[in-house]
Input
Amino acid sequence: MQETRIIMGMPVILEVVDAHVTKEMFDEVFAYFVHIDETFSVYKSTSEISRINRGELLLEEASEEMKTVFALAEETKQITQGYFDIKKPDGSYDPSGLVKGWAIDHGAQLLRSRGLQNFFVHIAGDMQFSGKNFEGNKWSVGIQNPFNTLQESVKTVYLSQEGIATSGSYVRGDHIYNPLDHYEKMHEIVSLTVIGPNVYEADRFATAAYAMGKEGIHFIERLPDFEGYLIDANGIATMTSGFTNYTSASYARTY
Amino acid sequence: MTSLKKILVPVLFVAGFVIAVVFQRNTRSTENIFVSTLPDVDTLEAIPTPVIPAQKLKTTTSIPTPVVSPTPVVSPTPMMPQGKYRDGTYVGDAVDATYGIVQVKAVITDGKLSDVVFLSYPNDRENSIRISTMAMPILRQEAISVQSEKVDAVSGASYTSAAFKQSLGSALLKCMM
Output
């Protein structure tokens, strides 16, 4: 069973292999993502994060979810030596760089809590996998060609319990803001894909490592349990030392 | 004859030592670049880190001190600041190393330099690549090529970019009077 809905302006795809999946299980996960969007979207004036940014709501008075996300953001900022920061130059907060992976991970947990074992949850290029695909094989995942907007891949990896996330800019000149160095030329790197134990971890480290520029792949190399694939503006990919383990369908990783 | 020997031996020692020092300095250029960034580590305001105080310098060169040395010897050039560092992360200045810009970040743990991270390193000329790989772990590279294989899903960032533009576009529309 597979279904795609547009939530947060992005495609949300659920695919479940297990036969006992029901429409209600899908609805529950989609409803959760709608709730996340209504809470954390900085583009919605009624969202909780918008109320915080307007000074109408103090963090201490905010929901537990909001407090959790702020705590995770602070922890991520520390781990990445400041390269990940939800505080924008204008002083407002935008936790979307963290919330997407975190929410996908929660969506996957909801499916697991319903006894589902073989599925993926996919929001806008980032995804959490579980078990096997319809053919009983590992999930095959393409890394998107960053030089056009087609769904064409330049590398295939095989995943079963991992999360994968890609950070990048598909238009030369666009860039992720680097909070530590306003002058760094970010466009040298067009995409950085990270595979990790779960999509939340993969997403936050992909975002931070992308902001580090060419050093980002070395940051991923030093993180145990994470692998990365960086594509530069010349179409040259640099991969971490354990990355090729994932290009073989027979590789079984234990975390 | 013995008096000539007395003069020659120390002179040879000193000459050899000076040559060794010069050679050492020339072959350790990357280290010198790193050191030159250290005194300015507190220049980035974004990082709440302590300032490294002015410290005495000592040599870390491995050249043995001449045993017989009746005359003052050219002392080796100071290479690294000495003393206990305060724990934290320090970003050095971006330095023009003629073959490219080098910028490093030093991580101090338990008062010692535990990691040096290259934030920027020369990579656009053949010569520079050779120099860079001496300090950076060598990771495998390949030219990307489009795959024809069918996959279950595709990971990419263009979705987000499209959503971002869409969202920004809608926000801009709201701003228009």
Observations:
- Chain A has a mean pLDDT of 88.
- Strands of chain A lie at 2-7, 10-16, 119-123, 126-130, 139-144, 153-159, 163-168, 189-196, 227-232, 236-239.
